Amino acid sequence: MAYAALDAIDDAIDATKAFLLPFEFRKWLRLAVIMIFVAGGGGGGANWASNAPQFADGGTGGQAPTDPGMALPDAAVGGLVIAIVGIVLLLVLALLVVSPIMEFVFVESLFDREVHIRRYFSQNIGNGLRLLGFNLAIGIVGLLLIGIPFALLLLGVIGGSETVAVAGTFLLLIPVIFLYALVSGLITGLTNVFVVPVMLAEDRGLLSAWGRVWSAMTDDIAEFLVYIVISVILGIGVGIVAAFGAVFVLAVIGIPFGLVGFAIVSVGGTNLATLAVIAVLGIVAFVLFLLGTGLVQAPLQSFLRYYALLVLGDIAADLDPIPEIRAEIRGDAVGDATDDAATDGWE
């Protein structure tokens, strides 16, 4: 018996090629921006930027500069730290709110094979907020199942409860944490790859779309189980490729920016103006790093999403979110001469 999850891999590659080729810089750049939110960028960051000030003593063994004009006032340091913390918190909040909306922007880009961030973003604010609420609900469940018992466990440790009882409670929490991570990750993943496309294709709410997907899953559970297994394997492979790509991007960007930052600090010392320049360089380097890793992620994530969309349509034809793309890809692959409209432009 042939499973849709096995048959759709080659077609997903073809669909990705058709979406991304021929190369268009603006399309790839927009996709790189989307990937920052959908795929989490490159993860981590340009840590060399935050370490640059340690070289500022110019080889004096870590002693403070003798020129009072070179010293950085404590008040300025405190203000800089507060500003950085504030910026980080704002970025985290923006990421939390914008990421769910970008899920719909990405999927709609795959549908139309065009990338329009502002247009798709404004059209999907409501959908994104629904997805955000759904994700927050999953997080609240985790808090109730794990956070509260863990807090009680800490209170028991602080209160001097019996060590054996505390250790036993902690051991009981481990399988709960593992099970929650597995189930919540599965729900979140299926929501992104199956439910979000159904919401867009059928103009449905999240729970209504989940009902449609759930009905299809229960009708052919074996097909979906095979998809989950294959998608995990493909995800691991994609993750490895993305990790190597991120390391390459980090080297290409980090080395020249690191050398420039080192030279600036060595010459200018640790005064406020110099650190301000270093901060700007660090921000520029970090943004370039995110865009660079976004360019790496663009074809990888497009392949995974097209793969899921093709599998969904193969398993449940009435849920197929990309029938035209499927017809073109499958028609071109088998040389179907009866559907000239499907093959035009692909030969």
Walk me through what this model shows:
It is a single chain. By secondary structure, the chain is mainly α. The chain has one domain. Helix content is 80%, strand content 0%. Helix 1 crosses helix 10. 30% of the residues are buried. The C terminus is likely disordered.
Total helix count? 12
Helical content (DSSP H or I, runs of 4+): over 70%
C-alpha termini separation: 31 Å
Structural class: mainly alpha
> Could you tell me the mean pLDDT?
82
Kindly give the count of domains.
Answer: 1
User: Major beta sheet, specifics?
Assistant: none
Instruction: Write the H/E string, N to C.
Output: HHHHHHHHHHHH
Shape: globular
Based on CA atoms alone, the radius of gyration comes out at 25 Å
Low confidence ranges: 41-71, 333-347
User: Quick one: how many beta strands?
Assistant: 0
Beta-strand percentage? under 5%
Topology (elements, then pairings):
Elements (H helix, E strand, L loop, with lengths): L3 H17 L4 H14 L9 H4 L22 H39 L4 H7 L1 H34 L4 H40 L3 H14 L1 H48 L3 H44 L7 H12 L5 H4 L4
Helix pairs in contact: 1-10, 2-4, 2-10, 4-6, 4-7, 6-7, 7-8, 8-9, 9-10
